[in-house]
């Protein structure tokens, strides 16, 4: 049976509001005097209240344009520092250079602070925290339609508690077998998740499809022989979609899931 491995944020779950709120909270602790906070504060409030107008603001646009170039929690902070400094960054090399300019201690503090801010937000009001995450209904529908025909799994860097709570919130309880939900504990790199998934399911790598919204994750996993698909509905831009096609990777959208992600099942 074909195994489908899904990344969580930006693939199974639209967590763009939550990530933005937590990133701003972390930034405000580390950079309390940043001018940018004057702009971010009201946008954060709007996102927290479930609004959408914050997405049209130039600061948020720049933030979401930089996210695909990062990998981990500290990258949300790196993106906000770049916006604060009005740094023009258009590609991976430019981003990597800016990343390297920032002190490693600051990046580490942001990384830790991000998870602390997330825990604070979740513990303070669990229902409001859950409500910041939205399902992608087309994907939920496709998973239901193909139930029994594929072996769906999760390959994420998120913690297991958040993943369990959110799968229930997104209407995905029971879709994934417990031993096929691979979280933060599995490892940092997605190659570790995919290797472990291959071991647990005993299927060949070329019978596994990996769906992630980060091109840099797909590029690392592809040499395993896994079929890699970029989730065009997640945290990426035309820059990544064009680059993915140039590398021979498929780019899926929510309206073509049967032709792309679920092809041949
Ligand atoms: Mg993702």
Short recap of the structure:
The protein is an alpha/beta fold and 265 residues long. The longest helix has 21 residues.
How many helix segments?
12
**Main sheet: strand order:** 5-4-1-6-7-8
Terminal CA distance reads 9 Å
Beta-strand portion reads: 5-15%
Number of strands: 8
Give a list of the ligands: magnesium ion
Which percent bin holds the helix content?
Answer: 40-55%
User: What's the CATH superfamily of the largest domain, by name?
Assistant: HAD superfamily/HAD-like
Low-confidence stretches: none
Question: Could you characterize what this model shows?
Answer:
The protein has helices at residues 16-30, 37-48, 58-66, 74-84, 92-101, 104-124, 126-131, 137-145, 160-169, 190-201, 215-221, 238-246, and strands spanning 3-6, 13-14, 134-135, 151-155, 181-182, 208-212, 227-231, 250-252. By secondary structure, it is of the alpha/beta class. The chain has two domains: 3-14 and 133-256, Rossmann fold (3-Layer(aba) Sandwich), CATH 3.40.50; 16-131, no CATH class. The strands form two sheets. It has a six-stranded parallel β-sheet with strand order 5-4-1-6-7-8. The protein has a two-stranded antiparallel sheet with strand order 2-3. Helix 3 (58-66) crosses helix 4 and helix 4 packs across helix 6 (104-124). The radius of gyration is 18 Å and the shape is globular. The model has no long low-confidence stretch (mean pLDDT 96). Residues 7, 9-11, 212-214, 234-235 line the site of magnesium ion (MG).
């Amino acid at each position: 049976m074909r195994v489908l491995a899904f990344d969580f944020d930006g693939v199974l779950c639209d967590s763009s509001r939550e990530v933005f709120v937590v990133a701003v909270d972390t930034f405000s602790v580390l950079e309390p005097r940043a001018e940018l906070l004057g702009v971010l504060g009201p946008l954060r409030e709007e996102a927290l209240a479930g609004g959408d107008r914050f997405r049209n603001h130039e600061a948020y646009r720049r933030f979401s344009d930089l996210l695909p170039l990062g990998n981990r929690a500290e990258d949300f902070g790196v993106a906000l520092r770049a916006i604060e400094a009005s740094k023009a960054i258009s590609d991976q090399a430019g981003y990597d250079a800016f990343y390297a300019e920032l002190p490693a201690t600051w990046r580490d503090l942001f990384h830790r602070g991000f998870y602390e801010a997330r825990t604070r937000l979740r513990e303070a009001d669990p229902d409001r925290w859950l409500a910041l995450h939205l399902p992608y209904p087309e994907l939920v529908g496709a998973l239901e339609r193909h139930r029994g025909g594929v072996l769906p799994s999760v390959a994420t860097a998120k913690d297991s508690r958040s993943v369990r709570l959110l799968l229930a919130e997104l209407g995905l309880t029971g879709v994934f077998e417990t031993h096929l939900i691979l979280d933060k504990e599995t490892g940092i790199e997605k190659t570790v998740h995919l290797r472990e998934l291959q071991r647990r399911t005993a299927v060949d790598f070329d019978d596994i499809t990996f769906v992630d919204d980060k091109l840099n994750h797909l590029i690392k996993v592809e040499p395993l022989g896994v079929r890699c698909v970029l989730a065009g509905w997640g945290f990426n831009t035309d820059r990544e979609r064009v680059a993915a096609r140039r590398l021979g990777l498929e780019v899926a959208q929510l309206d073509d899931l049967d032709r792309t992600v679920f092809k041949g099942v």
